[in-house]
Amino acid sequence: MYEPKKFEHLLGIEGFSDELLKNHFTLYEGYVANVNKVSDLLAKLAAEDKMATPEFAEVTRRFGWEFSGMRLHELYFENLMKGGSVLESTSPLGKKIVEQFGSVENWEKQFKSLGTMRGIGWVLLYLDQENGKLFNVWVNEHDAGHLAGCVPILVMDVFEHAYMLQYGLKKADYIEAFTKNICFHVANARFSSAQ
């Protein structure tokens, strides 16, 4: 059974109202609960030898949505901190970003521009472990559009629930607040451990 992680230390973070965060935490906790429910249902259907049924097929598909929703929210909250931190161009991740994008500013501009695209989803900075290349990627749904074999280094939620309660349609303002609160210590650690 999965247990929801606690992210109350983010309450009071600049640019994110406590009401927005508490609602987001509740939504995340729903994903955790549903991962457990779907896991239990799959085990029950398997024990009843109902794996060739449409029900088993649909619940199996649903598992990917719930699990990825749970995990992406954890990665998102974990790469936030009050006041954020600076991505040093001399850090391992900073060096790779400069090598690939020309500068940290160029990378950030591209990352943020993906977030302002119309639609719901996620923006991820991925590392391809096979060749060491970084990619800024738009993921439309929790369970579709991910780059197979790549490791998430930085995750930004751009579903409406992440910002509309506070920012309305001003998604770009939310993205600015997100950017100011990125914990690049976490991103650097993810990058270093994935190499």
Provide keyphrases for this structure.
52% helix; minor pseudopilin epsh fold; Helix Hairpins
Would you give an account of this structure?
- By secondary structure, this protein is mostly helical.
- It has 2 domains: 17-78, Helix Hairpins; 92-194, minor pseudopilin epsh fold (3-Layer(bab) Sandwich).
- 52% of the residues lie in helices and 11% in strands.
- The protein is built from 7 helices and 3 strands; from the N terminus they run ααααβββααα.
- It has a 3-stranded antiparallel beta sheet.
- Strand 1 (122-128) and strand 2 form a beta hairpin.
- Helix 1 (18-47) runs antiparallel to helix 2.
- It is globular, with a radius of gyration of 18 Å.
- Mean pLDDT rating: 97
As a percent range, the share of strand residues is 5-15%
Shape: globular
Low-confidence stretches: none
The beta-strand count equals 3
- By CATH, the topology of the largest domain is minor pseudopilin epsh fold
- Going across the biggest sheet, name each strand in turn: 2-1-3
SS content category = mainly alpha
Helix content: 40-55%
- Major sheet, described briefly? 3 strands, antiparallel
| The CATH homology group name of the largest domain | Iron/manganese superoxide dismutase, C-terminal domain
Q: Indicate the multimeric state.
A: single chain
What is the CATH-assigned architecture of the largest domain? Answer: 3-Layer(bab) Sandwich
Rg calc: 18 Å
Q: How many separate helices?
A: 7
What is the string of helix and strand elements? Answer: HHHHEEEHHH
CATH class membership of the largest domain:
Alpha Beta
Count of discrete domains = 2
End-to-end span in angstroms? 30 Å
